[in-house]
Structure formats: C-alpha cells, structure tokens
Design brief:
The structure is a homodimer of 239-residue chains.
Chain A (H helix, E strand, L loop, with lengths): L3 H9 L3 H7 L1 E5 L1 H8 L5 E6 L12 E3 L2 H7 L8 E6 L11 E6 L4 H13 L4 E4 L9 H7 L7 E4 L2 H7 L4 E10 L9 E6 L7 H4 L4 E4 L13 H12 L2
Parallel strand pairs in A: 2-3, 5-6, 5-9, 6-7, 8-9, 8-10
Antiparallel strand pairs in A: 1-4, 2-4
Helix pairs in contact in A: 5-6, 5-9
Chain lengths: 239, 239
C-alpha cells in the first residue's frame, strides 16, 4: 500500500529542488533498480505493481497500482518498478587518477552517457559545475544504465576546485594540439565544456594543456557532440 | 498561406510510411533548415511564422500560423520554421574509403550522433540494415545538426551488401583484439550492432577481423553506448 503523501513525495522528486530538500531520488525499471539496490547506495523504499513476484533478499517491497505508478512516474510507459533511494554522501577528497570536470553540460542524455563512459574507462570521479544538469534527473539515470552506482559525482564551483589542484589540466579547443600526437600523463584533469558554448572563459584560464580532436577530410561540421568527444578523450588517456 | 491538405501532408511525414510514399521529409529549426537549403538536397516548400523576416535568396517562403505549426510540428516547442524537402536519390555505387555499416541501430539519437561522427571523420557513406531506424525521423534529424546533408545513408539488406565486398570487414566483439594494438588499413568496413543485441549472427559471419574497445580498471559495466563506441572506432581508423 502506498499512501497519498508518499505519492506526492515521489512525484515531487522529479524536481531537483525537492530531491535536495529530501535527500532522495527515484529510479525506475527493474534492472536498474536491482543494480542500485545491490550497490553502496541506500534504499529508502521500493514499490512494485506485483510485489509478490519480487524476490530480493532482505528487501521489503510495497504495493503500488498501475494507476498510482503512472501518476508519479517520469516514464511514458512505466514498467512496474519504482525505487526511492538516498542521495549518497561523497567523500570530500577525490582520489581518482584522472578526474573529469564538466563545465555546464546541459543535456541529461549527454551526462548519462558520460557517466557510463567514466565507468567503462575507470574514471571514478566527475566534478560538475553548479550549472551542469543534476545527475539524479530521471533522464540522466535512464542513460547511465546503472553506472551512477560506480562513479562519484561532485557538484562544486569548478574555478575554486581547479584553483587548488596541482594536476595538469587538459581542455579541448579549436586551436589545441592533436590528441593523437600528445602523450598524456598518468594523472590529470580533463575538462569538457557546454554543448553550445564549449569551455567557459572562467574555466579556460586554468587549462595548462590545450588539446583538439582532429577532423578528417574537408568536413564543415562545427563540432562533435560532447559525449562523443568524451569517449575519444577517455580512450586516449587510457592508451 | 498554408492549405488544409498541406498541413495534413506535413503531419503525415512524421511517419516513415508516408515519407517513403511521398519521397519527402521535414526539417524544423532555422539553423538546420538553412543548412539543408544550402546543400544538394532539394527544397519542396518552406513555411515560416514570420516569412517577411526571412531573407533567403531565391527561396519563396510561405506563411504558417503558430497554431497551424504546432499542429504539424514534432517538437514540443516549435520554433517558427518548417521546411519540406525531397529525400535525395543516392548513387548506387559507394566510393567512401571507409564504410560504416549499422546492423539494427534503433535509437534515433544514436543514429543522429553517428551521422554527425561520420561527417566529422570524413566517412561519407553509411549502409544501414533495413531494421535500422529511418534517418529522416525527426529525432534523428535533430541530433545530426545538419550532417545529414554531407553523409550518404543507404538502406540495404546488409548480408547481400557484405557478400559482394572485397574490403576487410571489422566488427566489435567481447573477445576481439584490442583496437589499441590493431593496425587498421586505409580502406575497410566497420560494423556497429544493435543497442541491446550487438552484431547479429547473420552479419557476424562476414567479419574478417574482430576488434574490442578495452575497458579500464575493474569496472563491471556491460557495454559502451553504440554512439560512444562509434566515436572511438572512427577516431582509430583515422589515426
């Protein structure tokens, strides 16, 4: 059974303001819900349309009707599962060898893909500017495919963060050196900019090394998608 | 002025069936519409909410009201421009040095990103299986950012296509050789599989070379997004 106040709470968690107020976020879909339950992230409450069919050891599952689920779901076609989890508290210190810094990435699908890429390439920490889309946004979570449980995502004023680091700071710029010819160190910071505006002036001045991903042929396309560029750069740092 | 039958036609073009029947497709948004008008793709008819503000040499622009536009637009917030274009006829022969083959890519955003990547890396021809999402789907067009005008996209039975080629055929597989250690030739075919199922058995048997994108660390993530994997592989073929 789900009471009215709970439905109201779950629905409110579609908004960042209420996620931060309550320290909770929502995950939908059986596979991802299970992955989050089996991670270090703590479960608040799990709801299912057919709770008797769920066999998760030591996890109590509460009943929710299809009608109630469609009221609170962010999906067009809700699929029977909705889990409410506590937003994890992160260690202040960042220990990843390479750190990815996002300077205002706006598109939830891009952020989700980038989190998944960091998981693949063993980059355990992402530092996001305060303007970057919230990682507990439902569309981000859909795109991460569970990688959110294995990557730490810190929201900070990135100029202050970059001001204190002793690591080399890499960013991509039109006039940068080809990443193919650059020998990248074992530790460093890689900055990715906003979809339309790239890396901001405020952040660009902290870059110690300017890189570029070379185009091929006589293409006139303006830029790579930020998630595509991240894929190539993370592949290069692990070369 | 836009007549009722035209509105009906434009709306119908949201469906692949009617796009193929009429040989027409729809592009929205000023920047992309202009890019398509200035390409080899032929304009059928251009509509704008404020046609008097448009200054495109030799292009007649027809008036459409905001209400009419919202009836036929595929966007939540239509932005004043809608162009109807002829689907281009492609040369039978494919002359690109590298050819990308898509074996059932389903997500429109992924296909759009892949087309944009091909444009960046000078891969001028994509061969899509008949199960691959249609490239004139509005969500694909939104993601291509105009690259659709510079990349030829062929829909074919890809087993027949692969059966006739003399080029080496590369595909990514869990047990493939690391792409970092592989020396790729100047010409070839790269196959990318479906988001969930990867490369189908029917197509896998045509692969002469099996590649893998190496993971890093002890990550347990299952796979890279197909567009992310394409970014890395196209970067590698142009190394």
């Amino acid at each position: 059974m789900v009471v009215k106040s709970e439905l109201k709470l779950i629905k409110s968690l579609q908004h960042k303001k209420y996620r931060n107020e309550h320290g909770l976020f929502v995950v939908e879909g059986k596979k991802v819900v299970e992955e989050v339950i089996n991670s270090k992230i703590k479960l608040h409450k799990l709801f299912a349309v057919a709770p008797e069919k769920i066999q998760l050891e030591g996890v109590q599952t509460f009943s929710i009707s299809n009608k109630e689920l469609s009221q609170v779901s962010s999906l067009k076609s809700p699929n029977g599962f909705i889990g409410v989890f506590y937003i994890p508290k992160l260690e202040e210190e960042i220990v990843s060898d390479w750190i990815l810094v996002l300077d205002g990435v706006q598109d939830p699908g891009n952020l989700g893909t980038i989190i998944r890429l960091c998981d693949w390439f063993g980059v355990t920490d992402i530092v996001c500017s305060l303007e970057t889309v919230d990682c507990y946004n439902s569309k981000v979570l859909q795109a991460t495919m569970g990688s959110i449980t294995r990557v730490n995502i810190h929201y900070r004023a990135i100029d202050s963060f970059l001001n204190t680091t002793k690591l080399p700071v890499f960013g991509t710029f039109v006039d940068g050196a080809s990443v193919k010819d650059s020998k990248l160190p074992k530790k460093g910071i890689m900055i990715m900019g906003n979809e339309g505006k790239g890396i901001s002036d405020l952040v660009a001045k902290f870059c110690t090394d300017k890189l570029a991903i070379p185009q091929f042929g006589n293409s006139t396309t303006e830029s790579l998608n930020v998630a595509s560029a991240t894929a190539i750069l993370l592949h290069e740092i692990r070369r």
